[in-house]
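Exercise 7. Given the components listed, write out the predicted structure of the assembled complex. Treat all entries as one system.
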Amino acid sequence: MAVASAAARPPAAPSKASTLQTFKGAAWLGWQIESNWAEPWVFAIYSVIRPLAGVGIVTFMYLAVAGATGTYAPDRLAFVYVGTAFFMFVGQELYGISQAVLDDREHYRTLKYVYIAPGSIYVYLFARGLAKVAETAISCVVTLSVGAFVLHIDYSAFDPLLLVVALVLGVLGIATFGIMLAGITLLTARHGFQMGESVAAVFFLLGGVVFPIYILPGWVQNISYAVPVTYWIEAMRRSVIGDAGQANSLLASMPTWQLLVTMVTLTVLFFGLSVLIFRQFDRSARRKGRIDITTNF
Amino acid sequence: MSERTFDRTDPFASFARARGGGRLHKGKVGTFIAAWQARTYIRLSGNREPSWVFFETILPMLSVIAYLYIYRYLSAGSPDADRFVSFVVLGGAMVAFWLSVLWGIANHIFWEKQSGNLELYFVSPVSPMAMMLGMATGSLVSTSLRASATVIVGVFVFGASFSADNVPGALLVLVVALGAVYCLGMCFASIFLVYGREGEHLAHSLQEPVFFAAGFYYPLRTLPAAVQALGAVVPLTIGLDAMRQLLIPGVEGFLPLWVEAAALPLMLVGFAVGAHFSIKHMERKAKREGRLTLRWQ
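Answer.
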């Protein structure tokens, strides 16, 4: 009887101390996994080579057009360059959080131990994703510096306060999508590692990252306005190059404070949604015995 | 018609007979081809999960569409815009093959090592080359679907236009280039026989940098000469440039078409021989250092 009542009792909510401990431990673990596979100098090169190649692609697209048409538009280069540089956070954080499930379940086979530890799995996954954010922050600084020194992109409108506020809000907002993906990943086989990058591709297209939203067909623009990344990228872009580029769209007429309020609202909304979705998939994964599964395909 | 029998005194006896009663032993060449076919079958039947079509075909296409919109933004109103659309569509289709080489061939050895299959490959009387050729053949089929989807969407939705006269020649170039690039993938795969996470990060770092250096989204001639030369090491670079010369009227290639047409078969043979020796060398090294079964690196 005592056993039955104990089983029926919901698990105690993690205390503040254990939440903090989980956060710190998971963030440290995430950083170690990301960085300790190589010597620091190799890791440093690795951290900047991909992002530089990514912005290199849009830069040479710009040069190809400029060469063919004979018109140079530095504001357009700044728009696509800065958008691409900041978008790295989206892809990396989504990948980092959802990949943590696969790494722990399939590679290290420790997910079941994370589950039976007294911390929150939600906090754990968020902190694992932060390791990717830290790595991306380094890459982003290098990329933006290259933009300034090599391409002479004008950062005279730089607003550090807006940058920090928007970055924090963005990291929280993107994490909610990462958690949703992590929930889905609990039920998928190992191929789920592509999900993060695939979902990032949706945001890349819809979020006004590398071209203004008005370029998209009208019905797609309406979807863009429902995507939090749209507002985040705009706020980040405004923090370094000012109010540039998003002409002919709702974003152009939005003052920065309204942009931030919209981001907060959407983040709260998607946080609630992510908790619901994660719980649903988590319950389903436990019922189906997927927490310690290893899939060979 | 003979019937299979089970001999309790010799449980392995049934292994010596094929289903029709014939001998299973096929000789060296026969075993090589049978293993090749078998591994191809697994790769093809393994791709039957419907969610893979969504995550591996439809979502990645969104990135290509985003690049198309970048050109619409950058070359707004320019008559060259259509030509750039054709450039991106062909390049976007090639991206699928490069990702398949990196993740479906090279990194797959790491995957097999983690799941415990790699040692089974090496204790079987089958050449690792046959296994990898099987993976490559299976990947080619499934990746061709994704690449075709990109071209179809590019032509019918975004108005990419190609010269129909040279399609047979372009297909021939494509086949040889793909043969060469999958052999290059087998060379990379040998690295994973010895290395673990380091190799995985190498695959990551060969993603965007190759998109950049191979000119997937712009004419190769836009790049500095040194980067062009570096990119030309990857057969897809040469193959893509040759296909653009054949299919997009008025394109000035990186090298004359006949040079590229002559270089591709040489690359195919070179990388095939290179794959053979690198697999042999790395297999020996991995066995000597006890790394074939090393997990959780």
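Discussion: The mean pLDDT of chain B is 84. Chain B has one domain: 28-288.
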